[in-house]
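Archive entry: two folds, one per protein. Generate the first.
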Amino acid sequence: MKKNLTLLFSVLIMASCQTKKGTPLVLSSNGNINTITVVMPNQLWQGAIGQTVRDMYAYPAEGLPQQEPLYDLKQIPPEIFTGFAQSSRSVLWIGISDQTNVRIDKNTYAQPQTIAVFTAPTSERLTEIIISQSNKVIETIRKQERIERLRRIRKSTYTNHGLEKKFGISLTMPSAYNTLKEGENTIWFQREIQKGHVNLLVLTTPYDETIVSQKNLEQIISKRDSIGKAFIPGRLPNSYLITEKAYEPYVYHTSFSKKPALEIRGTWEVQGDFMAGPFLQYIINDKANNRNIILEGFVFAPSTAKRDYIFEVETILRSIKEKK
């Protein structure tokens, strides 16, 4: 097994060197969005090292009402990492080897492609590497997956959304979306899915620097719930969208084109009705235009996995561009 791993690892290095010399690549990578091919011997996958990989890359994604893994992991042993498998878009290459290797290769066998290579002489050292490098690998793969999702969206986009005229911004969204409702400072888009719908909300509010800088959760929830009450009714009379009371949202600082912003992930419910689902919201401080831009996506898909719908929402909202 060790000889096979060493041989395959050498091939991986050679392919990487060819890429660096500028050899043209003709293969397009393959794979479902948010899926990682894990190349490691079966006995490692079934033991403690495999469990560490699952702990680092398949833990429950944040802000979803049911547990879904951050990434779907598909393990294959090194000896069958050939042909179609080598064109996987996201790959973890993990094994025991005399040499310690910690690196991320790009476009080795296909493009776009990310291959994270982790090897070490002992199980203990390999476990340390997997844990310490997971955040970097996840961020690299997340960016790659957003680019890939956006590429697929651009095959057929919704262009008559009216955002440039109303707000001076644009979003890249699939043509399956339609404008559901429009107010003075708000537009609500929706697309039907097999068991529900995916929604996008774009609005502006008067400039408030503190809601982002102070990351005040009570203020964030109050603002969000007031928007739901004013603009997003439920199915029953006097029902409307609110932030689910039982669980606090996750809140992080982020930025859009160097503008300070917040990212909020959590679950919504309907006051006065039995509806719920995940949401993702961004609050952007747009000081130059004396406003806050609020971008939100929320999903209603009962009895259906929702991770990839929220990832679609994330990709669309992060495609925001200002009209020049």
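Generate the second and append.
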Amino acid sequence: MNRQLIQEIEQIDVPIDIMNIFSLDNYVSVITGGASGLGEAIAIGLASFGSHIVLLDMNTDGLNRVKKRIEALDRKCEVFVVDVTNWELITEARERTKEIFGYVDVLVNCAGMNIRKPVLEMQPAEFRKIVDIDLTGTFLCSKAFGEMMVERKSGSIINLASINAHIAMEKQAGYASSKGGIVQLTKVLALEWAKYNVRINALSPAHHKTPLVTELVKDAAWYNDLVSRIPLGRFGEAYEIIGPAVFLASKASSFMTGISLLTDGGWTAI
């Protein structure tokens, strides 16, 4: 009988710094797709909880705009113009991050895109583009920055999946396929890297108020149909992704890996 283990169980130890369980002070967080939308919200959120930020995106103007917002929070911010399907650019950004900060605590794979078309109208090249950016990009960035975490034996990766990874909707063949792949990739990485104390989890949001849905919201029938499926009766605000992201990035989720956390207003509860 393991008496030490029994004593530990009976003691119910609680760390004295439990109130700081969500703190990201002096963390370094890399966010892909951080120049707008949910990526921007997550970047601002992680910085607000203490993290320095590295942004990867193709949108130069957006990168510079978000950089100013983060620096206004008295956090360091580096930006790199990177196509997440380009392994050389990703590894260059990783090496520059290593030179500047020395380590990475958090990676948020938020870069993504969508083409909404029925399967019979979607071109093969369009399907490949969605999968290449959303799924392959997540794999490449996880591999690149995950190497740093594995070497350090510490880190948290947050992959942006989607409610479309869990339910089926029309005109979402490419997007649903890539996001479903992200959920499974998350599980495999969690299994492989658990021994290195590197946690990998996914966030699966429903629709949030971001530029990605601006044009779609103009279609009243489309909007009303979606809202009718959400028990909370509305789209999420962009900032409402911050709490779940901080949770998965911080010690608050230290015993969680391989999960897909739904932020869907109750959609999948029906």
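Annotation attached to the second fold: The chain has one domain: 23-264. The chain has a mean pLDDT of 95.
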